[in-house]
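Why does residue order matter? Because the sequence determines the fold. Keep that principle in mind as you read this record.
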Amino acid sequence: MQEILYVEEWDMMDYFNAFWVGGIICALVQILMEKTKLLPGRIMVLLVCTGAVISFFGWYEPFMEFAGAGASVPLLGYGNILMKGVKEAVGESGFIGLFQGGFKTGAVGCSAALVFGYLASLVFKPKPKK
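Structure:
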């Protein structure tokens, strides 16, 4: 008799939660860009640091379980990844782990951003913000 494998059913609410949470994060960032004089680079640093702080307090995992890709894709998720790496490295290497943990876990994301940013600058003519 042939065995039937059941794949976990996808829940439409997972997609909905990812959509609205990611949308709110993007809308808040857009408001920051429009209503303040903060430059985009500073806003990105603010997002990464916020993600790291939320991760430090242990709130990011439940947030990511609820929101899925809506929480893991924006820069908040990158801050969470960096903090996870630092926690693991401190556990393994002690104090020196503060300096090596973020590099180990964030290397792929940084490398991809640099490579794709460079490729985009070759295709499109970058202009300074006035």
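The chain has one domain: 12-123.
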